[in-house]
Design brief:
There is one protein chain. With about 220 residues, this protein is an alpha+beta fold. It has two domains: about 70 residues, SH3 type barrels (Roll); about 120 residues, Lysozyme (Orthogonal Bundle), CATH 1.10.530. It is built from seven helices and eight strands; from the N terminus they run ββββββββααααααα. The strands form two sheets. A four-stranded antiparallel beta sheet has the order 1-7-2-3, with no helix packed on it. Helix 4 packs across helix 5, helix 5 crosses helix 6 and helix 5 packs across helix 7. The longest helix is centred in the C-terminal third of the chain and has 18 residues. It is globular, with a radius of gyration of 18 Å. About 35% of the residues are buried. The N terminus is likely disordered.
Length: about 220
């Protein structure tokens, strides 16, 4: 039988935390993520991911930890995530996006639109599925591009834009298919011969294409 956390852990009063069978971590950004356990270690919150590996993030961006009463399947992984690192002083994310998008041959308007939809430019964003940072890299994608810290804006953008460029090359003249693959995976796009019939993916592609067309920026 699954173990359930016996108490709500509020960080402001956290003194002696202990691991629970499954917990939901709510960040100050409003995002939530379900993990196997969340343990405070000084100024750091150590979260053990359900798929394996750990994610370390400052306690200051964690609002609370709640029991997760939903059963989840487990998967093997060895990816260990370090803490969020803010951009270097004097640099801005939009400037990095423009520079790296041009470097990898991705339209700047498309890069900005994707980042806005993925994370709304929140470098410490974490999705319920474990996607991380500005371009919401999944652990497997971060490993593929040798990312040491997916919360570092430069590393995240470098990997994410390389990945997006690869998908644009994989689906030439079909930007919508490349975006769908970024969201749902290449296998789904190949299987359905284009945008798969998933409401989330269809809405995702429409939003990015509209933003890119209007060239909206943060």
């Amino acid at each position: 039988m699954k173990q359930v956390a016996t108490a709500l852990i509020v960080l402001a009063g956290l003194v002696a935390p202990r691991a629970a069978g499954a917990e939901i971590v709510r960040l100050t950004t409003g995002a939530t993520i379900s993990v196997k356990s969340a343990i405070a270690d000084g100024d750091t919150m150590v979260m053990v991911l359900r798929g394996g590996g750990e994610m370390r993030t400052p306690r200051s961006i964690v609002a609370e930890v709640l029991p997760d009463e939903v059963l989840h399947a487990e998967a093997a992984s060895t990816f260990v995530l370090p803490a969020y690192v803010p951009p270097p002083v004097g640099s801005t994310v939009p400037e990095m996006v423009e520079r790296l998008a041009q470097q990898f041959g991705v339209p700047v308007s498309l890069a900005n639109a994707l980042i806005r939809v993925e994370s709304n430019y929140q470098a410490d964003a974490v999705s319920p599925k474990g996607a991380m940072g500005l371009m919401q890299l999944m652990p497997a994608t971060a490993r593929q591009y040798a990312v040491d810290n997916p919360f570092d804006p430069e590393q995240n953008l470098t990997a994410g834009l390389q990945h997006l460029k690869g998908l644009l090359d994989r689906f030439p003249n079909k930007t919508s298919s490349a975006l769908a693959a970024y969201n749902a995976g290449e296998g789904a796009v190949t299987k359905y011969g284009g945008i798969p019939p998933y409401r989330e993916t269809q809405d995702y592609v429409r939003r990015i294409m509209a933003l890119a067309k209007n060239d909206k920026k943060p």
